[in-house]
Task: inverse folding
């Protein structure tokens, strides 16, 4: 291995390869913020260190993550399914959280109350959350997103979450999708 | 003028409450000393002055609410007017008129009256410029955060941008007037000169702050446009997904095919094996990965044809949790123990006990038991191995 590797590569590897949270956000917890700044300062050296090991250090909008050079290829169907799940999740969050995006703070209670009476949102929560009522389903969904590093719990008592920069990784995929049927969708938008 | 809610004034003590409320109701009027004493006793007025809730203009002999308190009350009671900086334009006009009159008058007494009026206007201007800037700033912030209608937000922010620009022009004119007008060059009155210097500094500070406000508005505008486009796209995509038209009308398939990163990981490599082993013994890593079901895919995937192989050749399924539990319940070291383990009526093969050795040592749940332990090394004719005692024996 390269003898001039940055000192924090072991920490970075452990952070991005273990557990469920595999994205390093600039506005994450303090330790993440520090590590982000270190990586930002030595980005090229880090990339060069991990490349021979088969890990590509990718930089998104205010976030870092690994993509594997020899990534085990999931089938296209599986990837499509994940992509659709992701789009539905983003659509749900954008519709029910005001100004949803990096840095926004919201509470689980607000999300739950906004879903009340919206049959589509209730169905989404039922399918994607666990629990017997809407509040529990919303909470479980948000906690899962927190475990995956897209949200961070800023206030435990009031169940307030902050949207982390990692969400830009998901928005990036949504941004890459081109819509061909402009006119028809314009009508849909007008209806919506 | 009536105050919309009395409840807010309850935050003040009983004697101050009535006075402050009356000052607030008459905030647009000039309140001379004799009027102020009708609102409250002199001692109360003095106390309010000491608490900086009131201001006293000794030149004019007039009282008025402190600028900060006035804006706080207006904001809390919802009477704050978010308007263009027309007041600054009219104030500048009046200033120019007064200066001209002051210069043209031969009568010293009359000219002093005008001078006092100019000083009063400049004082008023000093406190109001900062307040107006704060109002713009908070209105921009509020309009960005509140509400969910993107078009209304855009409209409001564009209006604030115009407003900030016109205010900046007004401040520029005031700065020019104070700096270059001959009236201020020839004035000897110390109070006026001090006030002029203070206002010039204030103009510079407000101009600097306005640049920040412009940048903030532009950033908000960009964000809103981006969020708007994003939300619109997601709504369209939702409609396409619901109609099952997403494959034919978007390039989602292409994007999904090239998608990488955590959302699309199928599995993660988790290992405690030392980097030296990974580098020097690639075959061990390959076997460890193969054991986890990770193999390089070559060509199209096809179902495994297990009928071609006799059943007895299929490797046994070994639950290393059970093996570890048994290992923990005896006294021997890991190597010797694994050599004596039997599955399906036979001893483990070399490959199987090697797998077991690595699996037990590398397991995250169990490896803590040996954390920091330096193992003795032993060997036979084929192998050199670490003598790993069962965790329970170590604790004893």
Result:
């Amino acid at each position: 291995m390269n003898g001039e590797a940055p000192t924090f590569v072991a920490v970075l590897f452990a952070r991005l390869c273990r557990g469920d949270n595999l994205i390093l956000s600039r506005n994450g917890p303090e330790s993440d913020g520090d590590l982000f700044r270190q990586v930002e300062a030595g980005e090229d050296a880090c990339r060069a260190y991990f490349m021979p090991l088969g890990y590509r250090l990718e930089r998104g909008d205010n976030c870092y993550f690994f993509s594997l050079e020899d990534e085990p290829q999931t089938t296209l169907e599986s990837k499509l399914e994940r992509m659709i799940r992701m789009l539905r999740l983003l659509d749900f969050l954008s519709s029910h959280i005001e100004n949803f995006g990096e840095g926004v703070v919201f509470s689980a209670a607000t999300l739950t109350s906004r879903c009340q009476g919206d049959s589509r949102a209730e169905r989404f929560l039922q399918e994607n959350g666990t629990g017997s009522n809407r509040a529990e389903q919303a909470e479980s969904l948000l906690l899962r997103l927190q475990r995956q590093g897209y949200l961070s719990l800023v206030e435990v008592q009031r169940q307030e979450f902050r949207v982390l920069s990692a969400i830009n990784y998901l928005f990036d995929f949504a941004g890459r999708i081109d819509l061909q049927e402009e006119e028809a969708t314009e009508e849909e938008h007008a209806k919506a | 003028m009536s105050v919309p809610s009395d409840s807010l004034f309850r935050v003040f003590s009983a004697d101050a409450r009535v006075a402050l409320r009356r000052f607030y109701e008459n905030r647009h009027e000039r309140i001379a000393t004799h009027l102020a004493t009708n609102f409250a006793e002199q001692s109360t007025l003095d106390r309010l002055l000491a608490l900086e809730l009131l201001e006293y203009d000794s030149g004019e002999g007039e009282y008025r609410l402190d600028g900060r308190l006035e804006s706080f009350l207006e904001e809390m009671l919802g009477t704050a007017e978010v308007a263009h900086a027309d007041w600054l334009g009219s104030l500048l006009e009046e200033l120019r008129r007064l200066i001209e009159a002051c210069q043209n008058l031969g009568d010293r007494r009359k000219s002093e009256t005008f001078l006092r009026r100019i000083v009063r206007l400049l004082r008023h201007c000093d406190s109001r410029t900062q307040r107006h800037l704060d109002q713009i700033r908070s209105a921009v912030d509020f309009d960005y955060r509140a509400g969910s209608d993107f078009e209304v937000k855009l409209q409001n922010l564009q209006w604030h941008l115009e407003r900030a620009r016109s205010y900046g022009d007004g401040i520029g004119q005031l700065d020019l007037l104070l700096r270059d007008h001959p009236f201020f060059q020839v004035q000897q009155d110390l109070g006026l000169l001090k006030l002029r210097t203070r206002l010039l500094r204030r103009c510079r500070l407000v101009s600097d702050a306005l640049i920040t406000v412009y940048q903030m508005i532009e950033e908000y505008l960009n964000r809103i446009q981006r969020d708007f486009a994003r939300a619109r796209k997601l709504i369209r995509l939702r409609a396409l997904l619901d109609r099952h038209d997403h494959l034919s009308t978007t390039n989602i398939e292409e994007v999904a095919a090239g998608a990488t990163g955590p959302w699309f990981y199928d599995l993660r490599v988790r290992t405690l094996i030392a980097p030296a082993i990974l580098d020097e013994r690639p075959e061990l890593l390959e076997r460890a990965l193969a054991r986890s079901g990770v193999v390089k895919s070559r060509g199209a995937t096809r179902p495994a044809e297990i009928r071609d192989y006799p059943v007895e050749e299929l490797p046994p399924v070994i639950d290393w949790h059970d093996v570890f539990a048994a290992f923990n319940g005896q006294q021997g070291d890991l190597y010797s123990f694994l050599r004596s383990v039997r599955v399906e009526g036979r001893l483990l093969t070399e490959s199987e006990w090697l797998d077991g050795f690595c699996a037990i040592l590398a397991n995250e749940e169990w490896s803590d038991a040996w954390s920091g332990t330096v193992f003795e090394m032993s060997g036979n004719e084929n192998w050199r191995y670490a003598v790993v005692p069962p965790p329970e024996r170590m604790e004893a």
Observations:
- The two ends of chain B are 86 Å apart (CA to CA).
- The first strand of chain B starts at residue 31 and ends at 32.
- Strands of chain B lie at 31-32, 54-57, 62-65, 342-343, 346-347, 376-379, 384-387.
